[in-house]
Amino acid sequence: MSSYEENYLNKRPQELCNMCGKCCRVVTTSLPYQELLELQKQGDKGACEFLGIFEPFASVEEARSVDKETVDNIIDNLKSDGKYDEEKITFYTCKYLQEDNKCSIYEERPALCRHCPSTPWAIVPPGCGFEGWLFMKREEDKERVRRAKEELLEMEVLKKKVTNLETLDKIYAVEHKLQRTIDMYKKYGSENW
Ligand code: SF4
Ligand code: SF4
Predict the structure, then answer these.
(1) Which of 3, 84, 128, 179 is the most exposed place for a label (fewest CB within 10 A)?
(2) Residues 22, 66 contacting (CB under 8 angstroms)
(3) Is the separation of the CB atoms in 96 and 103 below 8 Å?
(4) How far, in Å, CA of 75 to CA of 53, rounded?
(5) Distance (Å, whole) CA 162 – CA 150
(6) DSSP 3-state assignment of 32?
(7) Which residues line the pocket of ligand 1, CB cutoff 6 A?
(8) Considering the entire predicted model, what is its pTM?
(9) Where are the alpha helices (DSSP H) in 54-192?
């Protein structure tokens, strides 16, 4: 039987990575730097792992001087999602990335690197080998949500025909599950799909 790690990686075709090193050279996080530092103090595993390898750039401009395209792509994406906050954004670079784009701790790299891209909705640098795959996965998510919406409509019709309480309870349970699927993608805009 394959391990959780193997299953996770099997879902991400690692051969798509073209080893450009862009996602190691300039990244940002959804949480502000100060919050990450707080979490690190509290021993939060994710924050400790991230700050154990990434160091903050002094400014957005400094990050831009390293990879303007990636920085601007991240900012544009955040702006279009209404999530850009100039005061709170920090870019980081990994201290283990070598000049030749190789990772100097590849065999021991943390899980956050092994699991990249963490979700089909991750913002990847322009030219990342995963771009096409992520697009396909996002379309699959959208299709899943559309099906759930259709089935919810079918449940509405069904409820009008059913009088048996037990059957109604089953319909409510199915509706609850379908709604959960839609809500799961809410932050990515599932209400409009
Ligand atoms: S940006 Fe994409 S292709 Fe480049 S190293 Fe990162 S995962 Fe691989
Ligand atoms: S530890 Fe290695 S794989 Fe992870 S971000 Fe740094 S250079 Fe990239």
Answers:
(1) 3
(2) no
(3) yes
(4) 22
(5) 19
(6) coil
(7) 17-23, 116, 124-125, 128-130
(8) 0.84
(9) 60-80, 111-114, 131-161, 165-184
- Give 88's contacts (C-beta < 8 A, 6+ positions apart): 32
User: Quick check: CB of 111 below 6 Å from ligand 2?
Assistant: no
Question: Structural domain boundaries of the chain?
Answer: 4-129, 139-188
Question: Which atom of ligand 1 lies closest to the CA of 18?
Answer: 3
Contact (CB, 8 A) for 16 and 129: yes
Nearest CA to ligand 1 atom 6: 23
Distance CA 185, CA 145 (A): 8
How many other C-beta atoms lie within 10 A of the C-beta of residue 68? Answer: 12
The secondary structure of residue 119, as a DSSP letter, is S
Q: Smallest Cα–Cα separation from 88: which of 56, 132, 115, 135?
A: 56
Binding site membership of 92 for ligand 2 (Cβ less than 6 Å): no
pLDDT tens profile 98-140: 999 999 999 999 989 988 888 889 999 999 999 999 999 999 9
Cα(49) to centroid(ligand 1), Å: 19
